[in-house]
Design brief:
This protein has 570 residues and is an alpha/beta fold. It has 20 helices and 16 strands. The strands form 4 sheets. Strands 3, 4, 5, 6, 7, 8, 11, 12, 15 and 16 form a 10-stranded mixed sheet that branches. The longest helix is centred in the N-terminal third of the chain and has 21 residues, at 130-150.
Length: 570
């Protein structure tokens, strides 16, 4: 298949406070459509020199790439450097402030540095043209800054946020937030707004549309078993509304026909049958509304609410429909190809650093290329607090194991990590909670400036799809992390890689403890791996995010990384 030439790209680089220099347009054809935004157009949350966007095949996602120019005072380097973040995080963690910036430190050492924000993270957006992308990115940036500015301004805001999130996650449905954008989704209640909503024809159409979506497996987003679970959940909700009612038996008859119909492969006759059965359901609930039986009071409103809530849940599942393999097979390769086209290293390789899930992605890519016998695109790799197997450790991530049940993942299709941490921060930042669990999970005592900790918590996290967590929980099972089909175990093939690796752990890391890092290090040939544990018994200590932005990392950890990368930048 030939290479397709897409729109030319350009960049604007700030030379002085009032001067911009236009780089020449790209002359090398590439398959990925890309957009680049100059400094004067960049969203204010982006502190990089340039912000680029790269398309992903089979998707309308445009991935954000933060670019930092190498310092002219540093020694010249042969390879660009790619930084990958952890699960549910964006580029902010690598660039908290001018004086505490992992990315700026690396560019100051001469490395052309890029940070990838995978789909759903940070300034990555869905759009079809550069204008839409720019508007979406600026809107996202403004909301992120509003979160930072308004946090703790209202004494009761933390309790309100926590109540909303607790109700959303523990109930039959959920609410979600993209770190800065809260979506109240499928929360049952406030029926007064629905009391006047009974329009039989519209309700039949809405219910028919919902069931038709399920029969089509929501346009390919749900598997057959998932669609069955979801349709059963909806019918269960209806059933609860009619329990102990004379109409219950009549409902079950219609329910049985619908269940059988939804298991049938889609054909031209199904839509009409679904509409007929939907109309019967609506009529049953209309009859129930006319009943004087107290349990059926406001039945029509509750029925309408259930349909609306369920449809929102389906919409949410479609919106957040990706997992670890999407990052591994689509997002990261697209970014690598784009960076190599831009930087054009002579050997066609780059250097890479991955924190937490970012390191897991790097390990997995090395395992995959080793298994396939392909030359990897990496000259060297650094992993920070990453492992392919957590079974022997006491990682706090084991709290995610309940999501290993696919039915539970369908009930809670997203985890609004950003909103949860914002709410938790408002509580933990006040006495007597100043040394709460939140602080110890993220940073060891005294290792991060309070203002930087605040920015990290309020701006660095976003919403996580349950499908992503579902796959990551396989790292807590025998044989470690595997692909979505359960047919490829990454740790089984890591030894086949020939890429030098520096694996770093923090002594007080509760998320990825040293023993978890060591278990993966043991899989790598000794001549290719270097293992470093940071933290001393008397201090300083390193928790999960101290390896990226801790106070002492600049003096102790960063030089170790630079030395390793320099050694393999030949």
């Amino acid at each position: 298949m030939g290479i397709i030439q897409y729109d030319p790209i350009y960049s604007l680089c700030k030379v002085s406070s009032s001067t911009f220099r236009r780089f020449p347009r790209a002359t090398v054809p590439f398959r990925l459509k890309a957009f680049s935004t100059g400094v004067h157009d960049k969203p204010s949350i982006c502190t990089a020199d340039e912000l680029h966007y790269v398309s992903v095949s089979n998707s309308d996602w445009k991935l954000a790439l933060w670019r930092y120019h190498p310092s002219p005072k540093a020694p010249p380097r042969n390879h660009p450097l790619l930084l990958l973040s952890g699960v549910g995080t964006n580029a902010v963690g690598y660039d908290l402030s001018p004086k505490s910036s992992f990315a700026r430190h690396m560019s100051g050492q001469g490395f052309e540095t890029w940070i990838l924000e995978v789909r759903g993270a940070g300034l990555s957006v869905q759009g079809s043209n550069s204008k839409d992308i720019e508007q979406s990115a600026n809107a996202m940036s403004e909301k992120m800054e509003d979160v930072l500015e308004n946090a703790t301004n209202e004494p009761m805001s933390s309790k309100k946020e926590l109540d909303n999130i607790a109700g959303a996650v523990s109930g039959p449905y959920n609410s979600a937030s993209e770190g800065v954008e809260t979506e109240n989704v499928a929360v049952i209640g406030d029926l007064t707004r629905l009391a006047t909503a009974w329009d039989e024809s519209k309700l039949v159409a809405r219910l028919s549309e919902t069931f038709t979506s399920l029969s089509e497996r929501v346009s390919g987003f749900l598997g057959e078993s998932q669609a069955k679970v979801m349709s059963a959940k909806l019918l269960d909700q209806f059933s609860k509304l009619l329990v102990d009612s004379p109409l219950y038996e009549q409902f079950n008859e219609v329910r049985g026909k619908l269940a059988t119909l939804l298991e049938t492969r889609q054909n031209s006759g199904i839509t009409g049958q679904i509409t007929d059965l939907s109309e019967k359901l609506v009529n049953i609930f209309e009859a129930g509304q006319l009943s004087v039986s107290p349990p059926l009071f406001d039945l029509q409103a509750r029925f309408t609410s259930t349909i609306e809530d369920f449809q929102k849940q389906l919409d949410l599942m479609v919106k957040y429909n990706w997992d670890f393999d999407h990052y591994l097979e689509e997002d990261v390769p697209a970014a690598i190809e784009y960076i190599l086209k831009q930087s054009m290293p002579k050997d066609g390789k780059l250097l890479a650093i991955g924190h937490s899930m970012g390191g897991i992605l790097l390990y997995s890519m090395l395992a995959r290329s080793g298994f396939e016998g392909k030359e990897p695109k990496f000259a060297a790799v650094v992993t920070l607090a990453s492992s392919l197997d957590y079974t022997s450790s006491k990682s706090t991530l084991k709290l995610l194991l309940p999501l290993a049940d696919p039915a539970q993942a369908l009930s809670v299709p997203v985890v609004p990590l950003g909103a949860m941490l914002v709410a938790a921060y408002e509580v933990s930042s006040r006495s007597p909670y100043a040394s709460s669990w939140l602080n110890t999970l993220i940073s060891a005592e005294g290792m991060m400036d309070p203002d930087l900790f605040k920015r990290l918590v309020l701006n660095n996290f976003c919403t996580i799809p349950a499908k992503l967590l579902l796959q990551l929980t396989t790292a807590f099972r025998e044989r470690g992390l595997c692909n979505r089909d359960g047919t490829f175990f990454y740790k089984d093939h890591l030894h086949k890689s020939n890429v030098p690796i520096l694996a770093i752990a923090g002594d007080m890391d509760l998320i990825c403890p040293p023993e978890a890092v060591e278990d993966t290090v043991k899989l790598i040939p000794e001549h290719l791996v270097t293992y470093k544990l940071f933290g001393d018994p008397e201090g300083p200590h390193y928790a999960h995010y101290d390896l990226v932005g801790g106070r002492m990392a600049v003096e102790q950890e960063y030089p170790c990384i630079v030395e390793f990368l320099s050694c393999h930048d030949k």
